[in-house]
TrEMBL record, chain B:
InterPro entries: Ald_Oxase/Xan_DH_a/b (IPR000674), Ald_Oxase/Xan_DH_a/b_sf (IPR036856), Ald_Oxase/xanthine_DH-like (IPR016208), AldOxase/xan_DH_MoCoBD1 (IPR008274), AldOxase/xan_DH_MoCoBD2 (IPR046867), AldOxase/xan_DH_Mopterin-bd_sf (IPR037165). GO terms for molecular function: iron ion binding; oxidoreductase activity. Keywords: Molybdenum, Oxidoreductase. This is Molybdopterin-dependent oxidoreductase. It comes from the Bacteria. Residues 20-140 form the Aldehyde oxidase/xanthine dehydrogenase a/b hammerhead domain.
TrEMBL record, chain C:
This is Carbon monoxide dehydrogenase. The chain crosses the membrane at residues 192-213. Keywords: Membrane, Transmembrane, Transmembrane helix. The keyword Transmembrane helix applies. It comes from the Bacteria.
């Protein structure tokens, strides 16, 4: 039997998209395959690694744990929406480049969105708070040392 | 004058696309809607015969295009139905077995591929997989080294004793030396399995183009040429009909060096059979149960030494669990056998191992590739000797070091590349001094006393290692200067986050004199560089770095020759700065690289303004052929680097830990690394590699293990239960110091750095935790790793009871 | 590719034998059969729409029955070609009595499948084949039970073809085109699983999505 499709309106990075997706289509898959925004990556599909983190109404969410249909009406921000309007890197992205906060880049979009939200909430984190801010995201390449540095540098750049 | 980029912390060019979410990993390739997606039915049993596979219920799933089982493989080609290649044969590997692309009659591990479903999307494909009914006859599984050795049950009926290989290497007569030595010790050690766990799993996309009669494959691999060769053979195609393009890869750490995965063959097979682009991307559970693991060994060590702790004889026997199949051969245990020696020169040495089959996921290299286990064996032995003699652990090691004036030092063994284990350069005494200073080794007793006064217990550990890097057979590079001045560079090995595009561009800019921004590097694309081996064994900088350097040199030679003619100057008076060739001291007399490129290719037809300069009435000596006999048109340089042997990096780690007397929680107070990888191309990237390695080392020492139950089920096949470190588990800051003993084996004097961070971790944490516990339990001993806080807790209890009873 | 199977029909062997030699029955009972044109003794040209799940196609082919041993066995030869591939099959069909008034049909098919069709995987092909066989024989049983194909479209002579039950030989009109009856309330399974079932040997033919066809 073919699946019932639902009309969903997704607002992603400021643009509105009309999709027809099955109820069980994950938000991560809808972003990646229906909207071709492949910057959001899927590392585990069980909500642990955080690579799929996007901002839903400003709050970091694991897009692999959400259905696309439940993002109806919400404003979603993905890594593709973090750069400045002129295309230059935003402060968090810039900080990552300066501090060598990424190696393979697969987990990076999840960190960028998480930190963007984190710094909005706490623009001047202490060192401990900077570590806490990224304590829910896994990275296998960098060993986190430079990611923490990037958080602190981003705080500097953003201020 | 421009500064050389060699040794500079240049920001990475890759970041520009990664940070914008514009990386192109394998699942991002071919996102158009009419790509077909695959899912795999995997065995739920560790050991079983397949009696029947019934796919009739799949017929009711809309959107399914094909279901393949073993019986379908032969209709692709006869070789597709044969077992996967045994990649690295060895005379000692007498009973090597590899799996089939889809299970034939029998499954030997949970996760083994049985059926391959192709459908409109992955959701539908998984629906279909769920409806395939398989009838199994369960067989008893073999799990763990002990069960494999006991061999009451066999994994493969035709492999007696579950032994794939027995191997022995020796120098001198170790047993005799041990018997004759003033002192003797024996140790029994175990290391548990862990796994690479890159954040991106495996994936393959294939497209058969009937117009060009070619197969295009994208796969998340560490060896584009390896996959290409295997796919071509299995698909019955000429090598020239197959392109393998390595996309951006989200981490490898070794697991992606194995090839061909069944899916790397099944996807092309399906693509050609169905006339559609087919994509397979595994999910995390699949990665746990159908990729590869590493690290599991049981070791028995006997050592004879004198009053100074000087080794007279070292006799090591170990049992290596390589899982159900052994496609990668004996590389991991061979590396354990040889790299176990570390920076030391035991006067005699014997190492024997058995590589054993079990009904579990197969074992292929994981960062360190057997070195961590060897380092663990050696360093625990050193600690035990020091303990026995009541001597300082650093002193006992120093006494056994190969001295700086003893290089090159031949250990008398054969290494994993089939060549002599000969260390080219190093300075272990200096490295030890730096390490002690960095961690505060001599000050530690005072620190310990201070902590003890506060009721806190701390310990310090030290571990040394040597790493053979940059193994052959070769790597190659192609440098092409285009008419627009851009320098296009290609090398065939692959990238998984090491920053190759940046590091190699630095080398080209330095050698060629072009500006860094004009260099564009491509790795892992067989269309651009079809001769290559792969990325593993910390070899990329050494192998491709050297090849790129040499290729750039060749290109430069041609640039200078053509420019000299064009400028009517002498070659030795010319310099190339920021992409412009000029006469030294006469900046007005210059020509840019793009123009040189135009001139390098005599034309009949101009295609733009610039190219007019190269047409037949504008250039050339009428008396000579436009392209000289020993020359070629175009401004290119190609070269290969093929060393006689590996080059040996080294390092030492020291860690100070605190263990909570009540909860047994283990906290890292200080982590110090001194490492020597010869000359550094980009110190920022090298440090990043060390950070990453240390984190994996922390994980492997304290948290990560593959928990198999006795029926061969992997109990922790997810990130929820397989504990990888978050930022909270790694030390807050790592103290790093460098030593540079250049390699004499390559033009840039570099040694590999990629695996360094993870090699001594099990050893150093075992040492530090043991040291911390001995405050309360003087004979506390750690022999099994990893050691989590709860394991430490129980170990305390059992050893405490032993000591009080 | 070998496909072996068996089916039961709850009618006597004689009636089953008759119906299988009757083109009016065949056109109405072969799943997916749209046209059947006799070309000789027990030989037909056929148009069949066949598919597996999402993958459908239309085939032009032929079927002939030979080596007839009345009420015992026959050999069916089947060939077909369509956009998604080709089929060439030889099927041995055996008729026996399972019980009083119950026929057991055993078939052994030797099939060569070419083209894209071969791409779906042997087990899929075998599974579909057997499912089609089952459906075909169920249809035949229904047809016998109703005393003839119901709702059959009249031929050019204006007569609705009837299946004669006992003793009469099946009428055969060379050149007569038999077209499939309109299927009223076809089950979703029928819609889904239009395959070709000829006698007892079943092989799936078309296996490429219709929407794909135009792209190549």
């Amino acid at each position: 039997m073919s699946e019932e499709l639902h009309d969903v309106r997704l607002m992603v990075n400021g643009a509105t998209h009309e999709l027809r997706v099955p109820a069980r289509r994950l938000l991560s898959d809808a972003l990646r395959h229906d909207l071709r925004l492949t910057g959001t990556h899927v590392g585990c599909e069980h909500g642990v690694c955080g690579a799929c983190t996007v901002l839903v109404d400003g709050a970091p969410m694991r897009s692999c744990l959400m259905f696309a249909v439940s993002a109806e009406g919400a404003e979603v921000t993905t890594v593709e929406g973090l750069a400045n309007p002129d295309g230059s890197l935003g402060p968090v992205q810039q900080a990552f480049a300066e501090c060598h906060g990424l190696q393979c880049g697969f987990c990076t979009p999840g960190f960028l969105t998480t930190i963007t939200a984190g710094l909005r909430e706490n623009p001047t984190p202490t060192h401990e708070e900077a570590r806490e801010m990224v304590a829910g995201n896994l990275c296998r390449c960098t060993g986190y040392q430079n990611i923490v540095k990037a958080v602190e540098r981003a705080a500097e750049l953003g201020s | 004058m421009t500064t050389k980029l060699m040794g500079q912390a240049v920001q990475r060019v890759e970041d520009q696309r990664f940070l914008r979410g514009l990386g192109r990993y394998v699942d991002d390739v071919a996102v158009e809607q009419d790509v077909l997606h695959a899912a795999v039915l995997r065995s739920p049993h560790a050991h079983a015969r397949i009696l029947d596979i019934d796919v009739s219920e799949v017929l009711d799933v809309e959107g399914v295009h094909a279901v393949y089982t073993y019986d379908d493989l032969a209709s692709c080609t006869p070789q597709m139905a044969e077992p996967l290649p045994l990649l690295i044969p060895h005379p000692s590997l007498t009973h090597g077995r590899t799996q089939h692309a889809l299970a034939k009659d029998e499954v030997n591990y949970v996760g083994e591929a049985i059926a391959f479903v192709v459908a409109d999307d992955r959701y539908v494909a998984e629906d279909a997989v769920g409806r395939i009914r398989v009838d199994y006859e369960l067989l008893p599984p073999v799990v763990g080294v002990e069960a494999a050795r006991a061999a009451a049950v066999l994994v493969h009926d035709d492999v007696p004793g579950n032994v794939a290989a027995r191997m022995e290497q020796s120098v001198g007569d170790a047993p005799a030396a041990i018997a004759a030595a003033p002192h003797r010790l024996a140790l029994d050690l175990t290391v548990e399995r862990s796994a690479c766990m890159p954040m991106e799993g495996r994936g393959t996309v294939a497209r058969w183009d009937p117009d060009l009669n070619r197969l295009q494959v994208w796969t998340s691999t560490q060896s584009s040429t390896g996959v290409r060769a295997a796919v071509a053979v299995k698909m019955g195609l000429d090598l020239g009909q197959v392109d393998v393009i390595t996309p951006d890869v989200g981490g490898g750490f070794g697991v992606k060096i194995n090839h061909p995965w069944p899916e790397e063959l099944l996807v092309p097979m399906a693509a050609r059979a169905l006339g559609r682009t087919v994509k397979f991307t595994e999910d995390r559970r699949e990665h746990f149960i159908s990729s590869a693991h590493e690290r599991g060994q049981v070791q028995h060590i006997e050592v004879g030494f004198d009053d100074d702790g000087r080794l007279h004889g070292l006799d090591v026997e170990f049992w290596h669990d390589h899982g159900a199949f052994i496609p990668y051969g004996l590389i991991v245990p061979i590396i354990t056998s040889t790299q176990l020696l570390g920076p030391y020169k035991p006067q005699s040495y014997r190492v024997r191992f058995e590589s054993l089959y079990t009904n579990t996921v197969m074992v292929t290299p994981y960062r360190g590739a057997g070195r961590p286990q060897g380092c663990y064996a050696m360093e625990r032995t050193m600690d035990a000797i020091a303990d026995y003699l009541g001597k300082d652990r650093a002193e006992v090691r120093a006494v056994n070091f190969i001295q700086p004036d003893e290089f090159p030092f031949d250990q008398g063994l054969v290494f994993q590349d089939g060549r002599e284990l000969e260390y080219d350069s190093g300075d272990y005494p200096a490295m030890l001094e730096k390490t002690k200073a960095l961690v505060g080794w001599d000050e530690f007793p005072a620190f310990r006393a201070e902590m003890a006064a506060e009721g806190r217990q701390v310990g310090i550990g030290l571990a040394c290692y040597v790493e053979g890097t940059g193994v052959g057979p070769y790597e190659g590079a192609h440098v092409h200067i285009e008419t627009n001045g851009k320098v296009k560079v290609a090398t065939g090995l692959t990238t998984q986050g090491q920053g190759h595009a940046t590091v190699f561009a630095q080398l080209v800019a330095d050698e060629l004199g072009c500006s860094f921004e004009d260099v564009e590097v491509v790795t892992g694309d067989t269309r651009r560089m079809p001769y290559a081996v792969g990325t593993f064994a910390s070899r990329a900088a050494v192998m491709s770095g050297s090849a790129i350097h040499l290729a750039a040199k060749r290109a430069k030679e041609k640039v200078l020759r053509i420019a000299a003619e064009a400028l009517e100057a002498d070659e030795k008076d010319l310099q190339i700065v920021d992409g412009v060739v000029s006469v030294k001291g006469s900046p007005g007399t210059s020509i840019d690289l793009g123009t040189v490129s135009v001139l390098s290719n005599p034309l009949r037809y101009a295609f733009d303004e610039k190219s007019k300069a190269a047409t037949q009435f504008s250039i050339g000596d009428p008396g000579k052929p436009p392209v000289a006999e020993d020359d070629e048109p175009g401004l290119e340089g190609k070269d290969f680097y093929s060393p006689e042997r590996a080059t040996f990096a080294s390092g030492m780690h020291a860690v100070i830990v605190e263990t909570d007397p009540e909860t047994a929680e283990i906290t890292i107070l200080k982590y110090a690394v001194v490492h020597d990888c010869g000359h550094l191309i980009n110190p920022m990237i090298v440090e990043g590699q060390i950070h990453g390695g240390v984190a994996q080392g922390v994980g492997g020492a304290l948290y990560e293990r593959m928990a198999y139950d006795e029926s061969g089920q992997l109990l922790n096949a997810s990130f929820m239960d397989f504990l990888m470190p978050y930022v909270t588990e790694v030390p807050d800051g790592i103290d790093i110091d460098h030593l540079e003993t250049p390699s004499p084996l390559n033009p840039l004097g570099i040694k590999g750095a990629g695996e360094a961070g993870v090699i001594p971790s099990a050893a150093v944490f075992a040492a530090a935790v043991e040291d911390a516990e001995r405050g309360r339990l003087p004979d506390f001993t750690i022999r099994a790793m990893p050691i989590s806080p709860s394991e430490l807790f129980h170990l305390r209890e059992s050893q405490g009871q032993e000591q009080t009873s | 590719m070998k496909i072996i199977g068996s089916n039961l029909i709850e009618y006597p062997v004689e009636m089953v034998w008759e119906s299988l030699l009757d083109p009016r029955v065949l056109v109405a009972t072969i799943p997916g059969c749209e046209r059947l044109v006799p070309t000789g003794d027990n030989a037909y040209d056929m148009t069949v729409t066949a598919g597996v799940a999402a993958i459908k196609g239309t085939y032009q082919g032929s079927c002939s029955l030979s080596d007839l041993k009345e009420h015992e066995s026959l050999v069916m030869r089947l060939t077909g070609a369509g956009a998604p591939g080709t089929i060439d099959a030889t099927v041995q069909v055996y008729f026996g009595e399972a019980d009083a008034g119950v026929t057991k049909i055993d078939y052994e098919a030797d099939a060569v499948v070419g083209g894209m069709v071969g791409g779906v995987g042997q087990r899929m092909l075998t599974s579909v084949s057997k499912r089609m066989a089952g459906e075909f024989f169920d249809n035949v049983a229904d047809a016998i039970g109703q005393g003839g194909p119901s709702g059959a479209v009249p031929g050019p002579d204006g007569l609705v073809p009837q299946l004669s039950v006992v003793g009469d030989s099946a009428p055969e009109v060379r050149g007569q085109v038999y077209t499939a009856p309109a299927r009223a309330a076809a089950s979703s399974r029928d819609d889904f699983l239009k395959g070709i079932a000829v006698g007892a040997g079943l092989v799936v033919l078309g296996v490429v999505a219709g929407r794909l066809f135009g792209r190549r």
